[in-house]
Amino acid sequence: MKQYQTDLASLMLRVALGVMFLAHGLTKLLVFTPTGTAQYFESIGFPGFVGYLTMVFEIGGGLLLLLGILTRIVSSLTVIQMVVIAFIHSVNGWSFSNAGGGWEYPAFMALTALSLALLGSGRFSVLSKNREY
């Protein structure tokens, strides 16, 4: 495989994951509100502050991924987050369209993030010159 193909694959994964994270983080912020998000996290057994941290991570991490900054770190943290979410949703079955959401989507996102963590930012990033973070 040629290097530009790897760099292009990294760019596509960064944009896809970054946009998804922004969409989910902004939904928590603007639709569910920070307080509502914290209450939801409490309802599933987490401390409320985890909801706030999740919003910050999803919005900030999404922006960092779009720019190609700290890609390996953000992607690695995403793998952890998505594995936890897949585990939480595992009681609802496979399909994410099941009541309460299944584990298929978070598992897919975990694998996407793992792939990006292995690839790194690529040359089509703000920190070009093939620096890997």
How are the SSEs placed, and which strands pair?
Elements lengths: L2 H29 L2 H10 L5 H19 L3 H19 L14 H16 L14
Main sheet properties: none
The stretches of 5 or more residues where confidence is low (pLDDT under 50) are: none
The shape is globular
Strand content: under 5%
Number of domains: 1
Provide mean pLDDT, rounded: 93
Q: For the CA atoms, what is the radius of gyration?
A: 16 Å
- So how many helices? 5
Helix content: 55-70%
User: What structural class is derived from the secondary structure elements?
Assistant: mainly alpha
**How do the helices and strands follow one another from N- to C-terminus?**
HHHHH
Q: Total strand count, please?
A: 0
Task: Measure the end-to-end span.
Answer: 22 Å
Keywords:
single chain; mainly alpha; 5 helices; globular; membrane
Short structural description:
The chain has 133 residues and is mostly helical. It has helices at residues 3-31, 34-43, 49-67, 71-89, 104-119.
Would you write up a description of this structure?
Helix content is 70%, strand content 0%. With 133 residues, the chain is an all-alpha fold. Helix 1 packs antiparallel against helix 3 (49-67), helix 1 (3-31) crosses helix 5 (104-119) and helix 2 packs across helix 3 (49-67). It is globular. It starts with a helix and ends in a 14-residue tail after the last helix. 26% of the residues are buried. It is found in: Cell membrane. Belongs to the DoxX family. Its main location: membrane. The chain crosses the membrane at residues 12-32, 44-70, 77-95, 107-126.
